[in-house]
Design brief:
By secondary structure, this protein is of the alpha+beta class. The protein is built from three helices and five strands, in the order βαβααβββ. Strands 2-1-5-3-4 form a five-stranded mixed sheet, with no helix packed on it. A hairpin with a 2-residue loop joins strand 3 (53-56) and strand 4 (59-60). The N and C termini lie far apart (38 Å).
Amino acid sequence: MIRIRYFGVLQDQLACQEEQLEWTALNTDELLALLRQRGEPWASALAADKIFKIVLNQEILHATAPIADGAEVGILPPVTGG
């Protein structure tokens, strides 16, 4: 089981702040692909052409990483700044 937390605009788009998901030790890219398979609004909100920051156990990742059972994953949406 992993805990997934959604941040920023993703909370509104997905109508979800966090959830727990049965887990079979996949990686961060596979997690995003799995969530997209749920259909809309997941497919659009988590589209592959968007750049997300993934936080694994409170550490920001800069590359694909394995997710162990019991992990906490945060998904930060793309942001624009000025």
